[in-house]
Design brief:
Length: 203
């Protein structure tokens, strides 16, 4: 169960109307410099800075995010997949797609609540998703249609599904009391083994 701050809890309990916006933060590698850089996009009407985990982050608005699938919460280690639709004509999105290698880039999504009447931020945004970019596609729109960038995200639970290859190598096994169980792993299956029968003569 998610725990909210006192101000957010009171805001939700009042049931006077809810105005929520989603903030998307991506860290990807710059193709030109090789450095990791961050980009923030949100579903608001204009660019705005938010304080996240004690640091100020700038998020670009004004139509860069066309849609975000409902973010579901689930216990356990199930890998959750979500899709975000971005506008390819937005300057920030266009630069990100062409200038950055976003494959497997870390992603965080926060949600911010605002007072419907004044538009003031209720409390610091809270995180609702953490994971990586799984795939990016730019489908060709129909004639007269609107183009879009479709981004598929995988939740951080995917990290728990990766095999620990280092624990299965001969080198790593030897560090554990000189265990040589996997000394022939590299040639396994390529060497003939004869059990209880005469070795075949070479031709």
């Amino acid at each position: 169960m998610r725990t909210f701050g006192a101000m957010t809890g009171a805001y939700l309990a009042a049931r006077d109307g809810i105005q929520a916006r989603l903030l998307i933060w991506v860290r990807a590698r710059n193709r030109a410099t090789g450095a990791e850089e961050a980009l923030g996009l949100w579903t608001g009407d204009d660019h705005q800075s938010f304080l996240i985990d004690g640091a100020s982050r700038l998020y670009y608005g004004a139509g860069g995010v066309l849609g975000v699938e409902p973010i579901t919460m689930q216990s356990g280690i199930v890998v959750r997949m979500h899709r975000i639709t971005l506008a390819p004509t937005a300057p920030e999105v266009a630069v990100a797609i062409r200038g950055y290698d976003a494959r497997l880039a870390p992603v965080e999504i926060h949600r911010a609540f605002f007072a419907p009447a004044s538009g003031e931020l209720i409390e610091a945004p809270h995180r609702v998703f953490k994971g990586w970019i799984d795939a990016i596609s730019l489908p060709t729109p129909e004639v007269g249609g609107q183009g879009a960038v479709e981004v598929t995200l995988a939740s951080s639970a995917r990290a728990l599904t990766r095999p620990l290859a280092l624990k299965k190598s001969d080198e790593s096994q030897r560090r554990r009391s000189d265990d040589r169980l996997r000394r022939y792993t590299d040639i396994s299956g390529s060497v003939d083994v004869y059990w209880g029968e005469a070795k075949a003569a070479r031709k």
